[in-house]
Amino acid sequence: MSYRLPRRHALLCLAAVPFACAAVFAAETSVNLNLDLNLKSLPNVELRLMQEPPKLKARARPATRAASKRDEYEKAYDLYIRYANGTIYNPTTAKYDKVRLRSYQQTSGLALDGRDENAATFMAPTVVMAPGQTVRFRLYNQLPALPAEQCATDDINAPRPPGCFNDTNLHSHGLWVSPSGNSDNVLISIKPGVDFEYEYNIPIDHPAGTFWYHPHQHGATAMQVASGMAGALVVEGDRYPTDKANGDLDVVLKQFQPDDGSGSAGEVMLLQQIPYDCPSNSLTPLKACDREAVGMLEDFKQVKDPDAWLMSGRYTSVNGKVQPVMKMDTQRLYRWRLIDTGFQASVVLRIRRANDPQKLLKALSVANQDKDVMELCDGEDVTQFEVASDGLTHDRIIPKNLNYLQPGYRSDILFSLPKAGAYCVYAETNLNNMTTMHDVNNTRLIGVITAKTNAKAAARAKADESPRDFLLAELRNAVKRLPVAQLPDSVKGTILGDLENGLKLAKFVPHAGFSAEAKETMRGMKKEYATFNIAKLDGKVRFMVEGKPEDSPDPDAKYAYDPHRVDHTLVLGTEQIWELASKNGSHPFHIHVNPFQIIGITRTDGGTVDAQYKDLVGTWKDTLLVIEKHKIEIATRYQRYIGEYVLHCHILEHEDQGMMQNVKVVLPDGKGGGDVGGHGH
Question: Name one GO cellular component term (predicted).
């Protein structure tokens, strides 16, 4: 792909020949005008213009508390959990379905988009944080209480009866904060009619990055997240690198933030899977809701099947809208904070130009257009340059055309659009087997970009400039523009040298990697194991995480989740290797509190490692897909926080059925072990 647009004489523009420039860009300008006109003639499309996620508004300072110059270091928010009525666009019918779903809302009155009958109300607001802040969330559980006998169950890992998903709590996915007390504690339950305030003390050295929040109530997590209860957490950084310390990539990338003042919140791309069903006719992909039917999510069967999302006939939404239109400019560097909050299925995200933009836009307003996605999206790929995953900046920029997003993943990408016209943002597949089958029938359009010529940038563009060269030039210029007072020339030179030498980002990595010597030492020490399995146990199909190698005599290794059992006892201040594997299927491994570095991926049968693991070794993450017949080694440190938390599969219906374990970090005992007791025991 080249940045040469239909303007063979672009160099004349550099020589300030205005008439030549006008002629060169005339064709593209007409494309822009036609695209705008077409949007206005398609009301279904015009209503789906992309909007930035709303920012959660902080609670006002109480009148009884005097103002302080330190108020900025403490923020308090209110989140109301209740049923909300709204509509979600359905591309199968090219109409809006009425829905009634559980949702997070930031006011005690209207839903987030309550005045727009065509807007989904089921995307939670974005929360923007800063290192060193204390952030409080008061959750008001205003969902209705149900009779205890209606929701009673004698098996904590069995699906709940229909409708029994109204207990809740809160998890800050990926934040490096305490798991105990009223911090990121997912082992508590907030009943209907109860409000509770969480308090997160964000460390001053917390990485800047992209995180998210959602409920984590065992047995109800899948149903609540699938209802749309998910929002972005953005930790913004302003720390400049020094000779001895790394800084935040935000100081460079903030120069490319949206012009509307929305900042990082305007870069968020929250992907959601909401498999609502209309009880009156049991919706299938080929059958629409009745006119007055209301889509709901009340029965665990709606998420239980491995292909539940695929069979639902629903479409991935972005920032609360299904198949939105995004107006953008050519020759401009954009950052997207992609957050996959899907309850079940993978999204292999691709950005590709449409050779016939008019045909693509027209398809946005007709029913059942997804069968033509590959035909409509037939141009060149737009390279996605990933700078961070799971909120943690890479040591080098990773280019990709296929971006494998598994449930819980985040991917910060930089990209630019070389030509005016229309671009498809689509999922190569929505299959739940977590691999790319390239099956056209499963390809789904996520959104459409309409790109208008950026005349100033086009005049500066170089002929045959590759996407990589354009990225490098933009980043180089952004670094050079940083003030010397904050970034001395010596450090600036190091950053520029790293960029030139393989797009490296060494001065922005938040965690120190493990050396070869440290890995060798850890391999000779006790390891931890997490092996996913789905098997029959005591006559029941159980979703399990086995904690020991296959030949272990430990009977606990075969148990499904028990909230009263600690499966891994770890010692504060130590480092350790974990081995991850799966005996049955593919499962995204997620562990709370401490992230991990991937240090090895091999096939257990001697075959070729799966393509989506390309470039992952050496990166830091908190969620990682574990594919059958692969062994993955990760290394982690237990830093700062003690207490109990969990690891689990992030296919959320698997977690709810027992594919989870309890982890406990304890103080050292002074003798090389851990002190698991208290009060002298």
Answer: periplasmic space
